[in-house]
Amino acid sequence: xxxxxxxxxxxxxxxxxxxxxxxIAAYISNVFSEQDNGQKTSNVSGELKVHYLDVGQGDSxxxxxxxxxxxxxxxxxxxxxxxxxxxxxxxxxxxxxVVGTHVHADHIGSMDTVIKTYEIGKVYFxxxxxxxxxxxxxxxxxxxxxxxxxxxxxxxxxxxxxxxxTVMSPKGENYKNSNDYSIVxxxxxxxxxxxxTGDAEELSEREMLxxxxxxxxxxxxxxxxxxxxSTTEEFLRSVNPEYAIISVGKDNRYGHPSEEVLYRLKNAxxxxxxxxxxGTIIIVSDGKEVxxxx
Length: 294
Ligand SMILES: [Zn+2]
Fold this sequence. Notes:
Blueprint: H1 2-31, E1 32-34, E2 40-42, E3 48-52, E4 61-65, E5 68-72, H2 80-90, E6 94-99, H3 105-108, H4 111-117, E7 119-124, H5 133-144, E8 149-150, E9 157-160, E10 163-169, E11 184-189, E12 192-196, H6 202-210, E13 219-221, H7 233-239, E14 243-246, H8 259-267, E15 271-274, H9 275-278, E16 281-285, E17 290-292
Parallel strand pairs: 5-6, 6-7, 7-8, 12-13, 13-14, 14-15
Antiparallel strand pairs: 1-2, 3-4, 3-16, 4-5, 9-10, 10-11, 11-12, 16-17
Helix pairs in contact: 4-5
Bound molecules: zinc ion (ZN).
Residues 59, 104, 106-107, 199, 224-225 line the site of zinc ion.
């Protein structure tokens, strides 16, 4: 009797263990979905919303995920009204992350106003300095709020809500061209990805290609307003985007975007959207696909 009982007990225990294992397996397959590239990513809820603001010849991008928000660059000094009005229209009170891609005034021009006006979490800026009044205003606004500039490291990741932001560049600390200091960030949301390149030039692109970084993204913010010194064919092949966004001013004196880059994008079958033609561009991801609201 006793031995029979214990056999029965063993049987029911193994049944329980089996049920637990099946439950765990079901949970894991639910939480992780297989991506095309074999990478496993968490399922996400809600949306990732990316706003490429029309700030003329400059960059300013606002990214929202759930209640979290990030701003990458803040146009020229003259764009502060446009940027603040846009942020207020979204009801954003706090930026969890502020990224100044590099020192140039068409990227950090109105960042001092953004820092003064809203609650700020972490500020990312490359190891770069300048003697310009714009840079001084930016740095003063950061220290007046008791904040510090955080120099990102390639490969470093942080979460914006459920979106995973990974630093792709800059790798080096001594670049001749200021643009190569640009912080490049890839944001992965579910199975979709966006890449933001600042004004990174060919050298930075080469460094990104040399590493074992996964550069693939659905949406590429075209570097340096479409200048021919960026967006090499090799880089484009690695990112392999569906959409390319060019943040550029109408009739700008630099001749941006260049015919060469427009040709490279067209030749690769990438759909191009430009702030000088379409105004502010909004792209939404549900974690599965991206939709452009223009
Ligand atoms: Zn620029």
